[in-house]
Design brief:
single chain, 103 residues, mainly alpha, 5 helices
Length: 103
């Protein structure tokens, strides 16, 4: 397991556009809307609280899944999902891509 500062340095070197293509296994996808701005804030040096309000279908899950995937090797990401109906799907998706998930 690597330390937080080493993990964050590694995350800051990632090309987010290429990472989303790699993660989804498709060349025809890209970050859209506020996703890139939010991800840049998440992996920036600054520790800050981030609140993002976006519409249904805007691929919100990418904003928390990507840092988990590209930052593998240490650290913990906490996501609070208020709708119980979404929890099973999130757990299934995480298990399929090899991320540990506690629901």
């Amino acid at each position: 397991m690597i330390g937080r500062s080493k993990r964050m340095r590694r995350l800051r070197r990632i090309n987010l556009g290429m990472a989303v293509k790699e993660m989804l296994g498709r060349d025809d996808v890209s970050l859209r809307g506020k996703q890139e701005v939010v991800l840049e804030r998440v992996i920036s040096k600054k520790v800050e609280k981030i609140l993002v309000v976006v519409s249904t279908g805007s691929r919100k899950s990418l904003m928390w899944i990507m840092p988990c995937i590209i930052g593998r090797g240490g650290g913990v990401t906490v996501v609070v999902i208020l709708l119980k109906s979404l929890m099973g799907g999130i757990k299934k998706d995480y298990n399929e891509i090899g991320l540990g998930c506690l629901v």
